[in-house]
Write a structure and sequence with these properties.
This protein is of the alpha+beta class and about 280 residues long. Among the domains are: about 80-135, LysM domain (Membrane-bound Lytic Murein Transglycosylase D, Chain A); about 150-280, RlpA-like domain (Barwin-like endoglucanases, Beta Barrel), CATH 2.40.40.10. The chain has 8 helices and 13 strands.
């Protein structure tokens, strides 16, 4: 009887051990997640960068988590896996919701052209859950003047070198009119573009959020730009959330949230602004 009891206890111990291992991982849509214990100084933004995902994705897989508590356990994507079946080590990366080739190239410090070449891509189109092959040697990093997460930049602003931008009035015709039409002026350096034009305040749809968001015709979605009000000398770091057509913008250069207008000291629904962003 004693041997039977000992045997049953041993079997129970093995079952508990197997269950604890299972509790440490889970698979959703083909992506493996592991449990991570929050340590001092960690934020959702830093965890998203360390595990090659986004803050929104971490919130979604953790029941709409908003804040982290020291010592708590959360689900994070498993580290980039390595394929040991080949002679040369090849890494893979799984595309997350809302990611583009440009965003992935910035995250992994690999050029878009290299990712396309390694995966036989003829365009920039990718899909959620797609597994991309990555070589062990990354391409040179593209230097950006302004980059990172908007919320974190707000806490630790990056100094921006101010430049004098001359205003040039360009009329639609050679004949001088009473109210000349102003067009955005672009001043390009090797690593930075400066534009000056009109900014209009929008408070509908995805622009209602109390965040520093802007819409621009051509700057890639996800890029961080600096919006400056030269009359007040104030500036705000903003994220591009949509590429909007010139027809929708009308006479404006950008659309911005009320939060941006408040930060730069713009007290009306529109006004002259200067924007700076990295040139690729």
């Amino acid at each position: 009887m004693k041997k039977i009891i000992i045997g049953l206890l041993g079997l129970l111990s093995l079952q508990l051990s197997a269950q604890s291992i299972t509790d440490e991982t889970k698979v959703i849509n083909g992506i493996t997640y592991i449990k991570h214990k929050v340590s001092s100084g960690e934020t959702l933004y830093r965890l998203s960068k360390n595990h090659h995902t986004t803050v929104e994705h971490l919130k979604n897989v953790n029941n709409n988590l908003t804040t982290l508590q020291l010592g708590s356990m959360i689900w994070v994507p498993s580290p980039i896996t390595k394929n040991n079946a080949t002679e040369k080590t090849t890494e893979t990366y799984t595309v997350q919701t809302g990611e583009t080739l440009y965003a992935i190239s910035k995250k992994l410090n690999i050029s878009v052209s290299n990712i396309k070449e390694w995966n036989g891509l003829n365009s920039n189109s990718i899909s959620v859950g797609q597994v991309l092959k990555l070589k062990s040697k990354a391409a040179p990093t593209v230097k950006e003047t302004v980059q990172g997460n908007t919320d974190e930049i707000m806490e630790n602003p990056v100094p921006v070198k101010m430049e004098v931008v001359k205003t040039v009035d360009v009329s639609e015709t050679s004949v001088k009119s009473e109210v000349p039409i102003k067009k955005p002026i672009q001043v390009k350096r090797s690593d930075e573009t400066t534009e000056r034009g009109m900014g209009s305040v929008i408070n509908t749809g995805n622009m209602k959020a109390g965040r520093c968001f802007i819409k621009h015709p051509s700057i890639p979605i996800g890029n961080i730009v600096v919006v400056i009000n030269e009359k007040t000398g104030k500036m705000a770091y903003c994220r591009v959330i949509e590429n909007i057509s010139s027809e929708a913008l009308k006479e404006s250069t950008i659309q911005m949230t009320k939060t941006v207008a408040d930060k730069i000291g713009l007290n009306s629904d529109s006004g002259e602004v200067t924007i700076k962003y990295a040139t690729l």
